[in-house]
Amino acid sequence: MFSVKPGLRHSVSEWSSNNQQLSADAQHERHVSAAIRQEGRSLRNQTRCKTIWDESDSSRRLSDRIWDVARWRDALESCAQKVDEEMEALTLSKERSEQNLAATAVPLEVSSECLTLREGRRGVELVVDPVDEQLKAEVELIERVQQVLQQHVNKAFEQLCVLQEARHQLTSDLQNKMDALDVDMSCLSLTVESPLISLKNNPTRIPSGSSSPQEWIQFSQYNVARAHEAMQASQQMREDMSLTRAQLQNELETQRRATEFALRKRNHHEERARDELEWQIRNTENEMSEMENDISGLDADLQAKSTNLKLAHTRLEIRTTRPGMDLCRDEVQFGLVAEVQQLEATITALKQKLSEAQHSLQKMKLYHARMLQDLSRKQEALSLEQRSMKTRNRLASASDKSPALVVPLMNSSGRSNLKLLAQ
């Protein structure tokens, strides 16, 4: 007997069914595989086109973004350059105002010195004349001019600070734009063959501090608008400063001429008064000399008349010694008595006239002394007026010289090229 392998035995039909099942399953798997292969090929084609399109679209978006950023970069750079130019112009205008302010120091010193000199006048010469009024008006005008110019300088300094702040915002925004351009241009230059590309952790996250496109545009628009507003205010300020400087200069020149005219006119009047007083003194001295001669003549005549009176008195007294009937009131007696009376009246008249002459001489001496004193004061006052006129010559010499440059409070725009903020 043959040995039989142990295990389950299958029939021929089962064997045939198994073969058919295997064939059917293989055919089905091949069909499924073919379908998957077709779908894979289609997906590959679709995804390849989609990837190429998306990459091209991203590159286009990057190019458009680069163009937008570059346009704003150019606008910001142009605006910043205009701000620099306006800052330089405003700084120059401020320096001119500072120069004009410094130039008022000499006129104020001269006017104050003239007022001080004229305070040295004495007596009746210390009058409140048009020169005093003009000098005081000049001092007040110069002080007002200094106040106005100082206000302009302060306002210009504040406006320079505003322009500096606007420029800082522009340059900061411009720096960001240039950095963004570098980033986007670097992204645009990348390809699938670039060695620096790699997978990143969560690249689709939204970075903190991100802004919307509207906010991005509004931020740059605000910076440019703010800079334009500051430049317009600066231009208006420069125009106002220029106009004010011209007006103040005209006022100062007009007042200077009015003061010098009043000073020359007063000097002319004082010269005339001095010359008139000198003429009066000379005539008074001549009259005093003649009066002294006449007084000497009156005194001599008085002495002579006294001698004649003595003679008449002596004759009358001697004739009283005539004896008896010879003591007669004769014509001689009447004549001597009349002579004595005439001599006494003459002496009285001479004494009165001598007294009047002496009194007149004393009065003339008194007025002569007063005129000499007044002449001294007039000469002193005239000397002070002439010193004042010489002092004011410094104004002409100061105007001939160009004013010294004044160091500005700040040099905010001493730049030749646009410099970006260092980050």
Topology (SSEs and partners):
Elements: H1 12-103, H2 105-118, H3 130-189, H4 213-319, H5 331-400
Helix pairs in contact: 1-3, 1-4, 2-3, 2-5, 3-4, 4-5
Name of the level-1 CATH class of the domain at 28-190 and 216-296 and 372-399: Mainly Alpha
> What's the mean pLDDT score?
87
Q: What kind of assembly state do the chains in view correspond to?
A: single chain
Derived from helix and strand composition plus strand pairing, the structural class reads mainly alpha
- State the helical fraction: over 70%
The total strand number stands at 0
Rg of Cα set: 61 Å
CATH architecture of the domain at 28-190 and 216-296 and 372-399: Up-down Bundle
Q: Per DSSP, what share of the residues sits in E-state strands of 2 or more residues?
A: under 5%
Helix count?
5
Stated plainly, the CATH topology of the domain at 28-190 and 216-296 and 372-399 is called Ferritin
Q: What is the N-to-C order of secondary-structure elements (H for helix, E for strand)?
A: HHHHH
Q: Termini distance?
A: 103 Å
Question: What does this protein structure show overall?
Answer:
By secondary structure, this protein is mainly α. The chain has a domain at 28-190 and 216-296 and 372-399: Ferritin. The protein has helices at 12-103, 105-118, 130-189, 213-319, 331-400. α1 (12-103) packs parallel to α4 (213-319) and α2 packs antiparallel against α3. The radius of gyration is 61 Å and the shape is rod-shaped. Mean pLDDT is 87; it is low at 402-423.
